[in-house]
Amino acid sequence: MNDEYARYPVHGAGLGLRRPIADQLMADPPADVDFMEVAPENWIHVGGALAKKLRFFTERYPFVIHGLSLSIGAPSPLNEQLVRDIKEFMAEHDIRLYSEHLSACGDDGQLYDLMPIPFTEEAVRYVAKRVQRVQDILGQRMALENVSFYAPIDTSMSEQEFLLAVLEEADCDLMLDINNIVVNSINHRYDASAFLQSMPAERIRYFHLAGHYVEAEDLRIDTHGTPVDEQAWQLLREAYSLFGPVPTLLERDFNFPPMDELLDEVRRIKQLQAEAGNRKAANG
C-alpha cells in the first residue's frame, strides 16, 4: 500500500447517510457507494430500531463522521462530554475520522446554524487550543471543514489566511468542502481556483460536494438540497488534477430525488476520480 493511499481514512465516492433515505438504501445497498458519513449528534445514544439500522450500514461500509454542534469557535466552554461521547461512538462503530465545521453554532444555547468566526490572529490561537484539546481527548487527529459564510465578523485576515493559520497552529487535518469554496468565492468575490490551489495537500483527508441555492447571480446559499452545481463539478475536476482522486462524499440533506438520480451524482464523482487517476498514470 503506497503512502498516498494510506493517508486517506476512506477511498472512492461516498454518500451521506440520512434517515429519510435509510430504508431505501437498506433495501438495496448501493455498490457504487464506497463509504458513508453521519452526523454523530443524530445517532449517539440512539437505541432500538434506529441503532440496528445504523449497525446495518456500519457493518457494510467504511464510515466517517461530521459533527454539527461542537461549536469549536464559540466563546462558551468546550463541550468535552460530547467529545468523549464521540470517541465512544467512533470505537463502537469503527469510525475512521471525525471532522467538524470551523465555525460557532451557539454560546449559552444551540443556534442550530453555523456562525462565522472572526478572522483574527487571536481567534486562530483560541480555536487551535480547543482543537488540540479535542484531539487529546479523542487520542487521534480531527479534521476541520472550510465553511460557507455570509456576513463576516472581522476580516483582519482573509478566509484563506485564517483557515491555513488554524490548521497550522492546531496541527489538525482538513476536510475540504468544494461547494463551500464555490459559494464563498461568488458571495465574497474571490478566485475559487486560487483558494483551492493554496490548500495544503498533506492535510486533506476527504472532500465534501453538495448543491446550493442560487438566490442571485452574486448570492449563493449553501443548502445541500439541490443537485450539485456545474461550477462545483468543474472545481472538483480541478481539485483532482491538483491533489489526485481524493475520497469525496456527496451531501444531500433534503429534497431527495429518486435514488438512482442521487446515485448518478455518486457515479459522476467516481468517473471524475477515474479520469484523474488515468491522467496521473499517463503522466508517470
Q: What is the straight-line distance between the termini?
A: 18 Å
Q: Give the fraction of residues assigned to helices.
A: 40-55%
Query: What pattern of helices and strands is seen along the backbone?
Result: HEHEHEHEEEHEHEHHEEEHEH
Rg, Cα atoms, Å: 18 Å
Mean pLDDT, to the nearest integer, reads 92
Count of individual beta strands: 12
Which regions have little confidence, pLDDT < 50, spanning 5+ residues?
107-112
Number of helices: 10
The main β sheet shows up as: 8 strands, parallel, barrel
Please describe the structure with a list of short key phrases separated by commas or semicolons.
284 residues; alpha/beta; TIM Barrel; eight-stranded parallel beta barrel; two-stranded antiparallel sheet; 10 helices; 18% strand
Question: Can you give a write-up of this model?
Answer:
This protein is an alpha/beta fold and 284 residues long. The chain has one domain: TIM Barrel (Alpha-Beta Barrel), CATH 3.20.20.150. Helices cover 43% and strands 18% of the residues. It has ten helices and twelve strands. The strands form three sheets. Strands 1-2-3-4-7-8-9-12 form an eight-stranded parallel β-barrel, surrounded by four helices. Helix 9 packs parallel to helix 10. The longest helix is centred in the C-terminal third of the chain and has 24 residues. It is globular, with a radius of gyration of 18 Å. The relative contact order is 0.14. About 2% of the residues have low confidence.
